[in-house]
TrEMBL record:
This is Catalase. Belongs to the catalase family. HPII subfamily. SUPFAM superfamilies: Class I glutamine amidotransferase-like, Heme-dependent catalase-like. The lineage of its organism: Bacteria, Bacillati, Bacillota, Bacilli, Bacillales. There is a cross-link at H342-Y365 (3'-histidyl-3-tyrosine (His-Tyr)). Heme binds at R75, R115, F164, R361, Y365, R372. GO terms for molecular function: catalase activity; heme binding; metal ion binding. Keywords: Heme, Hydrogen peroxide, Iron, Metal-binding, Oxidoreductase, Peroxidase. It is an enzyme of class 1 (oxidoreductase). It comes from Bacillus amyloliquefaciens (strain ATCC 23350 / DSM 7 / BCRC 11601 / CCUG 28519 / NBRC 15535 / NRRL B-14393 / F). The keyword NADP does not apply. Its cofactor is heme. The keyword Iron applies. Pfam families: Catalase, Catalase-rel, Catalase_C.
């Protein structure tokens, strides 16, 4: 490789590479795909003005054929996705732990593309369904593409990849009626859960607030599996990957999530798009948990079991770098739909373990892309193309873009000096970690995988009282929609092994028999890191609805808008009609939305300024009262000042309580906004 080819990648290299593929039609003349200029695009070629269309109309045939083939098969899972570009920088050299070059130099910005997604629903489903979320990151490193393909939950439903088709068949819409869409509140999913208790831990996470994140920007990411770091000396360590959002981890409430699905099914993708379009950044810190090989068996769980996590209190997360997402995609199909991730895309210094779910994924992802993207050359699609050169003897196939020269396409050869030739480890060649493996061929799982309930109980132990209530409510909703009483009873019986109170309350809520006593796990360990109550809390990037009509208190609103802007909070004026709204002293503000086009579920908090005329107008409108009442019932911060307290009292039934700031104190209001929700509010 030449010195020029070997130079370090910077954050612009991927953009520069993609530039040749970008197309801007502004000011251009229309052509066919072969470059022939087109003189007419409104009418097909006919034999006479009312005659038949002629087959020789090549422009019509090309245009229609392309349209007929515009769609590719959507992903079986993770079909509903959204992508964004950015870069990653390591904080300090990780030489002690791994030889991966992109984890060595803090000055290098490695380009990344991230695809966020839901799992169960089709491409047209809503963003805010209760589901696990995908968090897949493609690093365009100088050593090749590295894909960290994870979820917002650190564990999975199953332990062996051979069960994956069964899981997906169970959670997808039932085949006889293709219902329900993007939901697991149906018989086949819960029948699977009841009969495959290894799923208990993941189900606890999915039924928790983690299943309905407030934003992709406020969502953790996990590599799920146990991988290996290998350093230059060949020393290996087991490693798990974590993405920690700088804004903290926050979620919706279930009633709110359902309403948002109707009001704005694009809620999470819109939030991501608008944040970046408005100049904001989306930031995550990359953390790793590491276990020395000699400590592999010192825990009371198997570290290779994908239904288990490593508690952060036992294995601390070392923060090693930051990812900044700052550029929206140019074309959703070309980038988000065609991006192809694969956990087998690694670089020297990162290797695999014997996790049986991971081993299956190493086959499945490539196999999936072959049918989705039409053949073996999907790596040449711009969004998938590495930024470093690639050379091999893999020729031809559908959609080949590389034009290989010369007669030689095999190894070894003498006609071309045996080029391309393998690289040694010293030259950057990938060498698999030499793990010693012995054993008989057997279809069986290790007995160390047999504990299904201890970590599910640990998760329950770690929740705050409010979070536990949400989990109970989620079970009652989801299992309550199951038609089979037998399946409902089985589910309750299974989760009685997790916690007796949980199972008993769910049984009561769905009308089945209480489970047998004294079955729950005796796990007492608590991991505070698992509770969203123990996360970063900031008002930055939150969205506040300011309810105002003509006659609002001018100075009050101007001060509020200034304070919000300084804190990085977006404040929108919501009024009965679009256009200019005049204050009591003549100040004019533009209404961002109306009570018809906006809704409290689309905002993090509400503020009601004073001004008697404005307040009287809002008090007379049911929509305004509902706006405040709903925000109150969703535990959001609500501020008011002057006469605005009248609307607060009318809609919420009180002007005092957790998260209510009735005295116009803007600083206190923003502190209440930063808390995200006020669970101790008596509703």
């Amino acid at each position: 490789m030449s010195e020029d080819q070997n130079k370090r990648v910077n954050e612009h290299s991927k953009d520069e590479q993609l530039e040749q593929y970008r197309a801007d039609n502004s000011g251009k003349k229309m052509t066919t795909n072969q470059g022939l200029r087109v003189s007419e695009d409104e009418h097909s070629l006919k034999a006479g003005v009312r005659g038949p269309t002629l087959m020789e109309d090549f422009h019509f045939r090309e245009k229609m054929t392309h349209f007929d083939h515009e769609r590719i098969p959507e992903r079986v899972v993770h079909a509903r996705g959204y992508g964004v570009h950015g870069h990653f920088q390591v904080y300090e050299p990780m030489t002690e732990y791994t030889r991966a070059k992109f984890l060595q130099d803090p000055s290098v910005k490695t380009p990344v593309f991230v695809r966020f997604s839901t799992v169960a629903g089709s491409k047209g489903s809503a963003d805010t369904v209760r589901d696990a979320r995908g968090f897949a990151t493609k690093f365009y490193t100088e050593e090749g593409n590295y894909d960290l393909v994870g979820n917002n939950i650190p564990v999975f439903f199953i332990q062996d990849a051979i069960k994956f088709p069964d899981l997906v068949h169970a959670l997808k819409p039932e085949p006889h009626n293709e219902m329900p869409q993007a939901a697991t509140a149906h018989d086949t999913f819960w029948d699977f859960v009841a009969n495959n208790p290894e799923s208990a831990h993941m189900v606890m996470w999915t039924m928790s607030d983690r299943g309905i994140p407030r934003s992709y920007r406020m969502m953790e990411g996990f590599g799920v599996h146990t991988f290996r770091f290998v350093n230059e000396k060949g020393k290996a360590r087991f490693v798990k990957f974590h993405w920690k959002p700088v804004l903290g981890v926050h979620s919706l409430v279930w009633d709110e999530a359902q309403k948002i699905a109707g009001k704005d099914p694009d809620f999470n993708r819109r939030d991501l798009w608008e944040t970046i379009e408005n100049g904001g950044k989306v930031e995550y810190e990359l953390g790793v948990q590491m276990i020395d090989e000699e400590d592999e068996f010192k825990f009371d769980f198997d570290i290779l079991d994908p239904t288990k996590l490593w508690p952060e209190e036992l294995v601390p997360v070392k923060i090693i770098g930051k990812m900044t997402l700052n550029r929206n995609q140019d074309n959703v199909f070309a980038e988000t739909e065609q991006v192809a991730f694969h956990p087998g895309n690694v670089v020297p210094g990162i290797d695999f373990t014997n996790d049986p779910l991971l081993q299956g994924r190493l086959f499945s992802y490539t196999d999936t892309q072959l049918i989705r993207l039409g053949g073996p050359n999907f790596h040449e699609i711009p969004i998938n193309r590495p930024v470093c050169p690639f050379h091999n003897n893999q020729y031809d196939g559908y959609h080949r873009m590389t034009i290989n020269k010369g007669p030689v396409a095999y190894h070894k050869n003498s006609l071309q000096n045996n080029d391309p030739s393998p690289a040694s480890e010293e030259e950057g060649g990938y060498v698999h970690y030499q793990e010693k493996v012995e054993g008989r061929k057997i279809r069986q799982r290790s007995e160390s995988f047999n504990d299904y309930f201890s970590q599910a109980k640990m998760f329950w132990n770690s929740m705050s009282p409010a979070e536990k209530e949400h989990i109970i409510s989620a079970f009652c909703f989801e299992v309550g929609k199951v038609n089979s009483k037998d399946v409902q009873q089985q589910v309750v019986n299974v989760f009685s092994h997790v916690d007796a109170e949980l199972a008993e309350r769910v049984a009561k809520g769905i009308g089945v028999n209480p489970p047998p006593k004294d079955r729950e796990s005796d796990e007492t360990f608590t991991s505070p890191a698992l509770s969203q109550e123990n996360t970063v809390k900031t008002a930055a990037t939150r969205q506040v609805a300011v309810l105002a009509d003509h006659g609002f208190a001018d100075e009050e609103v101007k001060q509020l808008l200034a304070v919000c802007k300084e804190a990085g909070v977006r404040a929108d004026i919501i009024s009965p009609a679009l256009g200019t709204v005049k204050g009591e002293n003549g100040t004019e503000l533009e209404a961002s939305a109306t009570f018809l086009t906006a809704d409290s579920v689309l905002y993090d908090a509400v503020f009601i300024p004073g001004g008697q005329r404005s307040t009287d107008s809002l008090k007379a409108r049911k929509a305004a009262k509902d706006f405040v009442s709903e925000a109150f019932s969703h535990y959001k911060a609500i501020g008011a000042s002057g006469e605005g307290k009248e609307l607060l009292t009318l809609a919420a039934g009180t002007e005092s309580g957790p998260g209510l700031v009735p005295d116009g104190n803007h600083e206190q209001f923003l502190k209440a906004v930063a808390e995200h929700r006020h669970w101790d509010r008596n509703i």
